[in-house]
Write a structure and sequence with these properties.
Number of strands: 2
CATH superfamily: Amino acid/polyamine transporter I
Radius of gyration: 20 Å
Oligomer: single chain
Shape: globular
Helix content: over 70%
CATH class: Mainly Alpha
Distance between the termini: 35 Å
CATH topology: Amino acid/polyamine transporter I
Structural class: mainly alpha
Largest sheet: 2 strands, parallel
Length: 415
């Protein structure tokens, strides 16, 4: 069994699920997503956040019900395969794997930007390899350790917010580029902000029995985590806008570091940078665990080579972990965080479109409101995916074409 870093043994209370879910969500999306969201929607960004919250809530509800019906790794994949079909399941799984790899690259690259901006790609590569090593030996951050890391993230964000509001903003700098000021960009902003909510599956659809909660505790922890993330994202965005203004925020690739300079608090930048980098490590580990869950389901159904499911002495699929880490290193080195985040969000939205479709059929004989939520989630996921940048959509299209062909070629089964 993997070793667990925790203070009181097996998780059993509803509150214990909060760091599991919120600790997976409160990461790179909060630090970076406000900038491209502001570029897409400008002052309409709050409506984009509301839409992203609704899409995430529907997806969380769908995965929770699927996990109840299909225990073990890849519950969403298993549900879609059973209710929608083999090809849709492979499309959704391929999009999920690609999205998680890109998400890992984004997290690692943001970590590198905070820790050592002059060598961010190299730091990102090292961080990814260290996290793969930690996952392979069975390290799992749970219980008291998860609360400590969550508190560190909140402290870093709190320091930034207090600094922004405590110092009068400087006059806006002309950017020479018109700011998006149209409701048309709301869905584009929502698609990017949706990335910030990724991580709820660690609670709604855990891959291991130790992370499973009673239904009421899981539901309570998920609701609290989603609302807390939305509040945190709102407060951080408000602080950034107060100091930078909408136009300057829209152009900033690293808004947290830039806002400290704008607020005449550059001396805090090293402290915030190190704190943010450390806080992102568990998020990176959580993304790898999510990748592993779907990949193991594909191995189980022989859509990936059975060799990939080979485990280490700690019981972890080390070949899957290494493959995910190497792919994420390549993305982190070659692609900047914002376009990589757009691609990750687009892939994951495609995945959740199929996930909601499977949940809608699963719940068709009862559970009226969860079924309606799945319908809404399916529509929102498609809408937001179609609102992403053209480059992200084209790259996602490649994934949803090549992925099913590759998995079908491995299994030599097409239905």
């Amino acid at each position: 069994m993997p070793q667990e870093v925790e203070s009181s043994g097996r998780l059993a209370s509803g509150s214990g699920g909060i760091p599991l879910a919120l600790g997976g969500m409160l990461g790179a999306g909060v630090f970076v997503a406000p900038a491209p969201a502001a570029a897409a929607a400008g002052p309409w960004l709050p409506l984009g956040l509301l839409v992203a919250f609704l899409a995430a809530a529907c997806a969380a509800s769908a995965t929770a019900h699927q996990s109840e019906a299909y225990w073990g790794p890849g519950a969403a994949y298993a549900c879609v395969r059973a209710w929608v079909g083999v090809l849709p399941a492979r499309i959704g799984a391929s999009a999920h794997l690609a999205g998680q790899v890109a998400g890992m690259a984004v997290i690692a690259r943001v970590l590198g930007d905070f820790f050592l901006p002059t060598a961010a790609p190299q730091v990102a590569a090292v961080a990814l390899l260290l996290v793969v090593l930690a996952a392979t030996v069975g390290l799992r951050i749970r219980g008291g350790a998860a609360w400590i890391w969550l508190a560190l993230t909140v402290a870093v964000l709190g320091l930034v917010v207090v600094t922004c509001f405590a110092i009068d903003p400087v006059p806006p700098i002309p950017t020479g580029r018109p700011l998006a000021d149209s409701a048309v960009g709301i869905t584009g902003a929502a698609g990017v902000l949706f990335f910030a909510f990724i991580g709820f599956e660690r609670l709604t659809a855990p891959a291991v029995e130790q992370d499973r909660f009673a239904w009421s505790a899981m539901k309570r922890g998920t609701v609290v985590s989603l609302v807390a993330l939305a509040v945190a994202l709102s407060v951080v965005t408000a602080a950034l806008v107060y100091q930078l203004g909408w136009s300057r925020l829209a152009l900033s690739p690293t808004p947290i570091r830039e806002v400290l300079t704008a607020a005449a608090a550059a001396n805090l930048a090293p402290l915030v940078g190190v704190g943010a980098a450390v806080a992102l490590l568990p998020v990176l580990l959580g993304a790898l665990e999510s990748f592993r869950s779907t990949a193991l389901a594909l191995v189980r159904d022989r859509d990936l080579p059975r060799l990939m499911g080979r485990t280490s002495s700690a019981g972890t699929p080390y070949l899957l972990d290494v493959a995910a880490g190497v792919a994420a290193v390549a993305v982190a080195v070659l692609v900047e965080p914002v376009p990589a985040m757009a691609f990750a969000a687009c892939c994951l939205l495609v995945h959740y479109a199929f996930t909601n479709a499977g949940a809608r059929l699963l719940l068709s004989e009862g559970h009226i409101w969860p079924m309606r939520a799945a319908c809404l989630g399916m529509g929102l996921s498609v809408l937001l995916a179609m609102s992403m940048p053209i480059s992200a959509m084209l790259a996602t299209l490649v994934v949803v074409v090549v992925g099913p062909l590759a998995t079908g070629g491995v299994s030599r089964r097409w239905r």
